Amino acid sequence: MKRQDYYYRLAKKEHYKSRAAYKLMHIDDRFYIFKKGKSVLDLGASPGGWSQVAKERTYGGAVFSVDIKPVHIEGITYIKGNVFDDEIINKIKEKMVEKNTDGFDVILSDMSPKISGVKEVDHQQSLDLGRRALEISKQLLKVGGSLIIKLFYGQDIFNIKKEVEAFFDFCKFYTPPSSRKGSREVYMVCKRFKKTI
Ligand SMILES: C[S@@+](CC[C@H](N)C(=O)[O-])C[C@H]1O[C@@H](n2cnc3c(N)ncnc32)[C@H](O)[C@@H]1O
Questions:
Q1: Which ligand 1 atom is nearest residue 18's CA?
Q2: What is this structure's pTM?
């Protein structure tokens, strides 16, 4: 059973869907990702803590939340699906047309593989998810936009950084104080997306 720590209890008290909500708040406090009215795509959004924070910190901006598992939050657009599914980008685009959204200012990926406990396996699977978040961003992130990707630390962490930072003016690793002690997760925070062609 997961340790019920300070952020777990705080999330219950403040009605966030997950303790992960505080990680995104800490990232935003440090890097100023959100602004009023910005549009956000949240990949791997369930149960929805990050989507709640995105909604609050954009003061009602459009938030699209993608996950295999459900997300129940009022006012967001939920898209059920696996990011590796060939049709997922079209599914998101269809919803964008419905909601008059022409691209995203911010793309978030807090996606995690099913943890195997084998560090190298978990690391490589997190890189696959990170690379997929980058592919999706190349199609849906607006020029000047921001991308945040969760990764599990391992030998290829600087290789993926190189791949991703080629498309941004700014890219940094950050571990928020709300990440669990001993966790191998690290967030890559990238800003000012450049044109890809
Ligand atoms: C750590 S949780 C996200 C927590 C979320 N940020 C929050 O604040 O509530 C990781 C999520 O990634 C999702 N996920 C993992 N692989 C995925 C995939 N291939 N496609 C879509 N979602 C995926 C899982 O279903 C899980 O809900």
A1: 9
A2: 0.97
pLDDT in tens, 52-85: 999 999 998 999 999 999 999 999 999 999 999 9
| pLDDT tens-digit readout, 81-112 | 999 999 999 999 999 999 999 999 999 999 99
48: nearest Cα among 24, 26, 13: 24
Strand partners, 170: 191
Strand 185-193 to 168-174 pairing: antiparallel
State the catalytic residues.
Answer: 150
Residue nearest to atom 27 of ligand 1 (CA): 46
Q: What is the CATH number of domain 6-193?
A: 3.40.50.150
Among 26, 56, 67, 186, name the best residue to mutate to test ligand 1's pocket (greatest count of ligand atoms within 8 A of Cβ): 67
Please tell me the distance between residue 48's alpha carbon and the centre of ligand 1 in angstroms.
Answer: 9
53: which 2 tokens? 């924070």
